[in-house]
Amino acid sequence: MVKQLSGILLLAVAGCADASIIINQNIGLDPVYEPASRPAYRERIYVCTLTPFSDVYADAGRSERSARHKVSQRCEQGQGNGSIFCKTKDAVCTATSLDEDDGHAQNVLMIFDGSHQRGASLAISRDMPDLARYGFAERLSSFSIPDGWTVRFYEGISYTGGYYTRQGGDQEAIDFDNKIRSIRILKR
Q: Which residues cross the membrane (predicted)?
């Protein structure tokens, strides 16, 4: 994941003289809505840049020391070994955090308002008697159920009305698109 972020940052800053970088953790992703009761795991990374002349070099690492070293090496590849413009101490660094699996943690049910796990999403780790409380009533179109889980999707609030039971690995709400108002996790 860090290597992917590094590649994205390098593409984003290539050709720019400004060393400041804004890191958008959801580049190309739709917003994720999570209940406040579920704390998200965040992995801390460091992104460092060096800007000799009009060139910009960027790299990321799990520690600031690692990120500084990597960006210095990257800079020397372009400027030459031992370049005075590629010193690790001159790197400008910032720290950020990444959501585990970009919000698709394996210990939660993810529901989406678009097909093929796209659109706005909600991470669910407990029974949900009324999806309207989270703005998701009658909006579910696809989902991602962790392996080993069994989940029941209900058309009514408080687990009433018609229902559909799905296992881990299932993904599309073909039979019940935009009908679900509550969800119960039967097996983890």
A: none
